[in-house]
Amino acid sequence: MSDWRKMNKDELEHQFSPSRWSHRMSADDLIRAHVAALKAGTEKARSVTQTLLDVPYSDGDGEKLDVYVPSSSSPDVPLVIYFHGGYWQFLSKDESGFLAVPLVQRGVVVVAVGYSIAPKGNMDLMVSQVRRSVVSVIQQYSHISGLYLCGHSAGAHLAAMVLSTDWTQYDISPQIKGAFLVSGIYDLQPILSTYVNEPLKMTEEVALRNSPSHFLPQLKLSSASCDIIVAVAQNDSPEFRKQSEEYFKALESAGLNVSFEDVPNTDHFNIIEQLVDENYHLTKLLLKMMGKS
Question: Where is the motif named HGGXW mapped on this chain (predicted)?
């Protein structure tokens, strides 16, 4: 396998431009189609489920949640917290309810988290925000039967950072039962020299302290009993695939409950878009993880 350290800037930018690896359409069309799919899915979810929108989880401007609530009042209610992708500089919680319909129908609460994307927010702030969002959700929904995380791309990175949290500085220690990490990035160093870092302005020090691959001992301490699924698209770039494979192997070597899903006939975008479909492989896996299959 190639080493990213031997790649020049152009090669790195190609490897870390997910839209250039799909076989479905051109890069620009793909991004437009992705946003349209997420928006349409979220509009549908808002029209057919009960929602609580813009619930603050902290005092900051963008620190709000959207909650999608099942109509049944079963005491056994799992809750999924979703962290959106967009390379930490794009998208928001307002397009992040698309996965709610098949989950809410099975009695699952879905929470979409807003965080301060770059350039307004930096990486340290975003990681701090998603951690605080989890603390707030637990305080607001103390009756849930299990807490699960789901994140796509940059959101999978943020979910992995939540799993690696030292909760001693918070007054709460969340028992996260499961995490669904989809087409994520777990080592931020390769993107430092690329266009991705222009609005983030990360130094090497910032990248290292926010790379989940460097926090396996903490993850093992904080999330030892968590079921983790690392999923990657068949048509993700080689470097994206390598990041998922290496993170999976590191979690497995650390003795964690982890499985790897290489999803055929998907690219970086439709691997997550298809969660609107209750018959999609990853939707079924997510429901199974929560005992709702």
Answer: 84-88
